[in-house]
Amino acid sequence: MLRQPLLGSPQRFEQATVLMLDFVDFSEMAVARDPAALVAELNDIFSGFDRIAEMFDCERIKTNGDSYMAVCGLPERSPDHTANIAHAALRMRGYIDRRNRTNSNQWRCRIGLASGAVVGSIVGVKKYVYDVFGPAVNLAARLEKAAAPMQVLTDATTGTLLGPAFACRPRETCSLKGFGELRVHELLGLGAA
Questions:
Q1: Where are the beta strands (DSSP E) in the chain?
Q2: Helix 35-55 to helix 81-101 angle, to the nearest 10 degrees?
Q3: What is the CATH number of the domain that holds 65?
């Protein structure tokens, strides 16, 4: 549930970090499995993600099918927005890993993280929702699509912002639609700091 300060006129947030997550082969799962069981599992997973996001002062913006979008740095500005969302991403991946050890249905996610300015606003008239827009949102979505199963990718800016508190490995450049060739980093886990 969105906190009250989010509901209002469009706002620009100069410093935020966006998380985009989706599940590998979800379309195949959706047609092959019992719909009620699949939705129950997805609801359980997203409820777990919501608890993780809240733990690190992140806001879930929306889910769309098997996609989960969260942001940190709004409505309250936070100097730790990048670290907070990175912690959340690692916890979400760990949550899926632990769940897979005791569940016959194996879920594998891909995660993209990007930092920058975003605009937040209510959209719609009858069925309105709060949404965020901007290059950081688009970049996080492109990074999620480029990630391998159970991988967290960031752009170089976000990787640099994370600093030594996180273990990041620079990877090859990726061609990302709308962004061209970009250097990406893989978020591996917590660092030495």
A1: 11-23, 59-64, 67-72, 109-123, 129-133, 151-155, 166-176, 180-190
A2: 140
A3: 3.30.70.1230
Q: Give the rounded distance of the alpha carbon of 114 from its chain centre.
A: 9
**3-state secondary structure (DSSP) of residue 103:** coil
Question: What are the tens digits of pLDDT across the range 59-115?
Answer: 999 998 889 999 999 888 888 999 999 999 999 999 999 999 998 888 999 999 999
Strands 109-123 and 129-133, bridge-based pairing: antiparallel
* Whether the bond into 75 is cis, omega within 30 of 0: yes
Query: For residues 69 and 19, is the Cβ–Cβ distance under 8 A?
Result: yes
Residue-range definition of the domain harbouring residue 10: 4-190
* % of the chain surpassing 90 pLDDT: 55
Other beta carbons within 10 angstroms of residue 135's beta carbon come to 14
Placement of tokens 């170089």 in the chain: 156
The span from the CA of 10 to the CA of 25, in Å, is 35
Residue among 77, 85, 60 at smallest CA distance from 15 = 77
pLDDT value, residue 131: 86
Q: How far is Cα 179 from Cα 193, in angstroms, rounded to an integer? A: 31
* CA–CA gap between residue 171 and residue 159 (Å, rounded): 11
Number of structural domains (the chain) is 1
